[in-house]
Design brief:
alpha+beta
Length: 129
């Protein structure tokens, strides 16, 4: 019968995996921030409800999405800065979400931390949509 590995032998693997996840999340967060702030490093999808807003409200929504930086462990548990719910005067509650696809938008990305293998899509929607 084979003895189970002792805890100290396994610790470096666990710590290494945790560190890799944290570094990957930090890279993903940086890439997501770039898309959100510039709206030019990926695709931006506006739902019908967002597109139907008066021009001033649409500009306000886009400005809030670009400026948002109030991420906490409660509202961003994975540390990727890929989702937010905002309450705005006029349109009310809006959501934005960043999804990760392969470059052809056919499948999910195998590695969202690799911008050469990932196409980001920012979707902005009214909460009721």
């Amino acid at each position: 019968m084979r003895a189970a590995p002792s805890f100290p032998t396994e610790l470096p693997k666990v710590e290494g995996a945790r560190l890799a996840r944290q570094q990957g999340a930090a890279t993903i967060a940086r890439l997501n921030d770039e898309l959100r702030r510039n709206l030019a490093t990926g695709d931006v999808m506006l739902t019908a409800g967002i597109r139907a807003l008066p021009p001033a409200q649409l500009r306000a929504v886009l400005a809030c999405v670009r400026r948002h930086d109030d991420f906490t462990p409660d509202n961003d548990p994975n540390g990727e800065r890929d989702f937010c719910a905002l309450e705005l005067e006029g349109p009310g509650r809006i959501f934005w979400k960043i999804d990760y696809y392969d470059p052809t938008l056919t499948f999910g990305s195998e590695n969202p931390a690799d911008p050469t293998r990932t196409r980001r899509v920012l979707t902005i929607m009214l909460a009721e949509e």
